[in-house]
Structure formats: C-alpha cells, structure tokens
Amino acid sequence: MVGGGPAGAATAIALAQLGHRPLVLEAAAGPSWKVGECLPPSAAPVLDRLGLTRRLPDAGLPSYGNRSVWGATDAVERDFLFGTHGVGWRLDRARFEQELAATASDAGVDWRWGSRLVGCSRSRSQGWDLRVVGDDGPTVHRTDVVVDASGRAARVARLLGVRRVRYDHLVGALIYARTREVSEVRGPVAGVDSSTLVEAVSDGWWYSLSLPGDRLVVGFMTDADLLASTGARRPDGLRALLEEAPVTRTRVLAAGVDLSREQVVLRPAHTARLTSVAGPDWLAVGDAAIAFDPLASYGIAAALGEGYHAAESIAALLAGRADALSDHARLVDRTLARYLIMCRDRYARERRWPEAEFWRRRSVRSGPAQRAV
C-alpha cells in the first residue's frame, strides 16, 4: 500500500484479516491533520468489519444529524437517531489516522511511517520494485501487488502513466478555529451543535462542523476561478461572505469565532477519477481512484468500504484468479456512476440563483465537464 490514509489502511487491515502480511508505505512521519472530519452512520458496517468501531470514541465525538439550507431559506434537519446505523462521528483526523495505523499494526500489517515513494517498476522476476526514500535513506521494497492509496496525488498511477480526469474546479477555503466551548460532555445534551451544516449561497456553499478539542471547521466551497471575485482567499473576505449565510453565521458567532482573525487554508475539492483504476498486479483505492465532491459525504466512508473490497480482489488474485482485479474496477465504475447521478441531483435542487456562474455550471442542462490532467 502506497499511502496510509483510510483507503490504504482499510485495504491493509482487510488483507491481514485474510491471512496476508501487507506493507504500508506512508510518506508522513506520523499521524497528521488532514481534511475530512465526518464519518456518516452508513460507515458503521465496514468499521465493524475492520475492527475500528471500538477505537472511534478515542478519535472523535458523536454526530447526531445533518442540517442543510438548500433550495430554500429554511433549514432542513436529518436526525441520525432514527436511522438504522446509529450516530455519525466528528473526527480528530490526526487521532483517527493514529488509530488506523494502530489497528493495522495489531492485525499484523508492516506499517512504515516516513516512507516516500520515488519510483515504481516491474520486477525482473515477478511483482513490483518500489523505490522509497525514508529516514534510513533509499530502499527498494519488492511486492506482488501494489496499491495506490496516495490520495488525490495518485503517485503510483501517475508513475505508470495513467491520466486523471477532472470534472470541475471546486475548492474549499477552510478555517479551523478554536471556539468558546469548553465542555467535552458527549451527547446531544452537551450544549454543542453536533450536526454537519451545509448552506447554499449565490457563489457556492458553506460547510461547518464542531470538532473535538473545542474547534470549529468552517469552509466556503466555490470554483477555483471564482476565488478572487468572492474574496474567499482572505479571512476578511470570508467574514464578509458569511453575511449571505445567516444559519452558518449564527453558528460561527455562537462559537465566538471571528473569521477575520483566522488563517485560510485552500484545499482541492473537485471530482476526479483515473482513466484506469486497475491493471496487471496494481490497483488504486480511495481518492487516488475517485476524488469526490464533499457535498456527497462519500469521502472517508467510501474509502474504507472500497479498501475492504479491494483486499478481497487482491486475495483472489494471489490465490490464482488472474482476472480478480477487474472486480475492483467494476466496483469503482458503479460507485462513480451512482455518485455522479446523486451529485447532479443534489445540485439541481438549488435553483435560487440560476444566473450565478457557480450554479449555472452545475445545472442539469450544463452537465459535468471532463478534462484530463
């Protein structure tokens, strides 16, 4: 596995459960902050299969629902407590990454922090030679199958010459702020709004969520070429934009956060896919295979599930079924098809600004554009 995020960790854990001893090469020196803070209740089954459920209380706080201001001025609430999978989770991503690595190591995975892939080639005998740079200098690891779990960078796929197709130019202007909340009481009576809030405005949409450690993530999502005109690159610009989002503004003010005093972090949020997600003795999982618009809430849950099923395909290949990785490719294709339909339908529900460039690009008539990168 090249990459130790949710997709790579899930693939490795599932392979270990099937009797193999995977190797994970993670470029970071240790658990670190990453974008992606919420696990929906739908992730519960795969979390159970991977043995991660018991670790979640150490990595996050429960989320009891979602709120959205989309297509109308009134907020619509969805309560998780009435669903079949229980609550969602608001994650401390660095802690969650730590728990993923610990679960994998306990399962028998050879986990290597600080190991950056610099080359990938077919071995003279069988499998792959992975050239890696780490604290001990350059090394070569030989493996039967290589899994690209390197996120949007798709390092393995790019080294193999696979192209990436981009569907849009969505970016997030994010702020992670300390709040006035000091209570760590867990549950809906804690006085902390645990819901994920999404609110549409004329030039994009807002996302916000309270996180462990008395923090609040607030993000404005728009297209990259619209950042300058919206002012979203600057903290004071974000603060001015917030005036158009009254529900999000109320949450930010209640948390005691002044956006103009915080640091803005820009992160890609566009939909993208590889032109090929599997080939002879290799496959891609997670954001390396498909990167989702965060509006879909696919992110981490999809990465975990995809990794689990990828492990089954790899195990079948190693057992002698030559076409086993095609199962993974078909699963990714089905996931992409469902996602594109769902994402199109969600954007189509917002019709208040039909002439605004952001929404015009996402109208049903326009459809998604594709560009190879």
From TrEMBL:
Gene3D superfamilies: 3.30.9.100, FAD/NAD(P)-binding domain. It holds the Pfam family FAD_binding_3. Coiled coil: none annotated. It comes from the Bacteria. Residues 2-323 form the FAD-binding domain. InterPro entries: FAD-bd, FAD/NAD-bd_sf, Flavin-dep_Halogenase_NPB. Belongs to the flavin-dependent halogenase family. Bacterial tryptophan halogenase subfamily. This is Tryptophan 7-halogenase. The lineage of its organism: Bacteria, Bacillati, Actinomycetota, Actinomycetes, Propionibacteriales.
